[in-house]
């Protein structure tokens, strides 16, 4: 069967499943739209959280970043997994006990201030929109190759699918759709990884195969890869090249950004009890670990296969010729059609600069004749390894599932912040439930349109764009949540001042390096030559968080103390027993 037709069948079947689930689980009330009626089983909620959490950055981009960045990019793994543990231990049970539907609602009530609630809404929208850009980037990449359409058309198709099941089903529809999406994405990620690990090392478990011997050389696979990349003039795969300061701050930024991301936090509002919030957090960690333990192996093995493809006779031998690429196979008859297919998307380019008829892949930018976008590595991996067509189609469906599941969760967070916290909470408290539900759906539709527009010109690879969103959440939302739960001294004025200080400094630092409103030509600095020491824009969230904490405590110390009833509220939140029903709806 033709690969294109196979892709259409598999991707179309998964989309039909998602839309069918959304129709079955259609939200009929605000409680179902915002929190799935707080009746989701912990195991299912853990699976949905895993899908919500493992975005296009995790599925599509992270292994690509690791494939080309090596040791330095291990911070993505440490930050994202460590941050989830932080979220599960320090925030999830307490926020569920508080009994509200949204993060801004908690901040508004804890800091007894509508201004604090409004600022939290602004912080949430900025971080979430930035995050959604990364998801839409991943959607465009997947569609452009596997459905053979342009990146722009792919974005529009993805936006339409998200609109159909997110706007219709709300959190209830999204939750059960994400359960299906998790099953699709984890199967799609692990099956090709198992095949490739078997081919290269003889070990069917990719995480163990990474530390096994290469069957063709008998040497450890990481040593083989290290030798190849250094011989070709690329930076070392196994040694640190980034500064320790930047790696530390980047890891911290990802960790606390994880714990401050509203679309993940809101998942713990969908279970019946506090104990269920803890249980679903544990299950989610199990489901997340299945992919995160596999990702380093996928990245390393994909890089090894890529080098071997373009140097079929070893790096000391002749590189792949332009004639072989154009013919679609090398001298041994191995299929190279994937190179031409990805070249059509513009995400892989080759140019015989010196006219010798060969495509040289080396670390010297002036001599290099092959450019591979990081975001295509996982999606192209089955083709590079020459796996069966059904595996290629499955990976396409998995990549789209990962991007769409997280996009839906983020859009849900934006929608609830606008309709529930802004419109019902401040503009029109007497709005009917039907009116609030309509406002939530309109807000989500607008958010989808904005995210799609911004996704056309993202500020970086999917994982890099997502890292910026984590930095924004780390600098603004996480400190407010931590101080709201664990401090009885931070008052309303301090909380607002802290959030604004953390958000603004981080946004300005990012815009100075990535361009104002992500318009690249307006950037004053680059991450290769940052403004402050060696701190890149993706790492500044940790500094922004420190500024947030410092400003909040200083301002609180020179203004009115926290009222006694709020002190009592804070003490009651920290007792991990019993969970009241959501109030005020």
Q: What does the model show?
A:
The chain is mainly α and 585 residues long. The protein has a domain at 3-305 and 388-478: Sodium/glucose cotransporter (Up-down Bundle). Helix content is 69%, strand content 1%. It contains 23 helices and two strands. The protein has a two-stranded antiparallel sheet. It is globular and about 80 Å long. The termini are far apart. It is a multi-pass membrane protein. This is Cation/acetate symporter.
Order of helices and strands: HHHHHHHHHHHHHHHHEEHHHHHHH
Please give the count of helices: 23
> Which percent range describes the beta-strand content?
under 5%
Q: Unreliable stretches, pLDDT < 50, 5 or more residues?
A: 577-585
In CATH, what is the homologous superfamily of the domain at 3-305 and 388-478? Answer: Sodium/glucose cotransporter
What class would the helix/strand composition place it in? mainly alpha
What is the architecture of the domain at 3-305 and 388-478 at the second tier of CATH?
A: Up-down Bundle
Helix content: 55-70%
Main beta sheet, described?
A: 2 strands, antiparallel
- CATH level 1 class label of the domain at 3-305 and 388-478: Mainly Alpha
CATH fold field value of the domain at 3-305 and 388-478: Sodium/glucose cotransporter
| Structural shape | globular
